[in-house]
From TrEMBL:
SUPFAM superfamilies: CheY-like (SSF52172). This is DNA-binding response regulator, OmpR family, contains REC and winged-helix (WHTH) domain. Residues 124-218 form the OmpR/PhoB-type domain. It comes from Nonomuraea maritima. Residues 124-218 bind DNA. One of its GO terms (molecular function) is transcription cis-regulatory region binding. GO terms for cellular component: cytosol; protein-DNA complex. Residues 2-116 form the Response regulatory domain.
């Protein structure tokens, strides 16, 4: 998934991003509300991890603007305020979930994954297609019963292809979901990752190239 972490404490922001990247998510960072709104305007995020107390533009106002603009991304709001009124207030602004500081990173990662599922059409917890079984929560892939060890990027690309249900996924869509904002849109990273993925999934070939359009698992 593509995740935006908005947190004004750089060390905490970096720690959250690193943890989520271990779960194969593509993660961008913003340290204030104004930058967050700029990122959200140009990128298609699945989940926004949003600190409530932000400089320049308050987290509440970021959430309000997302709702008013019809942004599809789910919002996990972070705050040091643990009172019931604070939690209710955050959710009433349009946040989808609320997590108080300090928090455990595994819990945050689990909440992000759960929200990400809700940001898309409903999909089964375990994806199966063409002899492939992919478990997002365990980050495991099997092909015809054989375990397939994948890198983070290979797993992210395969997840997008499996979620498409046989439909074609363009290189641009894969770049959007599996890489962060620093990825060069003219890079051959997608093509190279698909090539490695094909080799690891082994014969018979399962990832098709649709010339000029993208890739699919029929």
């Amino acid at each position: 998934m593509r995740v935006l972490v908005v947190e004004d404490e750089p060390m905490l922001a970096d720690a959250i991003a690193e943890w989520l990247r271990e779960d194969t998510h593509a993660v961008d960072l913003a340290h204030d509300g104004e930058t967050a709104l700029e990122r959200i305007a140009v990128n298609d995020y699945d989940v926004v991890v949003l600190d409530r107390d932000l400089p320049r533009v308050h987290g509440d106002d970021v959430c309000r603007e997302m709702v008013a603009s019809g942004v599809d991304a789910r919002v996990l709001m972070l705050t040091a305020a643990a009172q019931l009124d604070d939690r209710v207030g955050g959710l009433s602004l349009g946040a989808d979930d609320y997590l108080t500081k300090p928090f455990a990173f595994p819990e945050l990662a689990a909440r992000v994954l759960a929200l990400g599922r809700r940001s898309r059409p409903a999909a089964p917890p375990v994806l199966r297609r063409a002899g492939i079984t992919l478990d997002p929560s365990r980050r495991e892939v099997f092909r015809n019963g054989r375990f397939v060890p994948l890198s983070k990027k290979e797993f992210a690309v395969l997840t997008e292809l499996m979620r498409a249900g046989g439909g074609v996924v363009s290189s641009e869509q894969l770049l959007e979901k599996a890489w962060d904002e620093h990825a060069d849109p003219f890079t051959g990273a997608v093509r190279l990752t698909v090539l490695k993925l094909r080799r690891k999934l082994a014969d018979p070939p399962v990832v098709e190239t649709v010339p000029g359009v993208g890739y699919r698992i029929p």
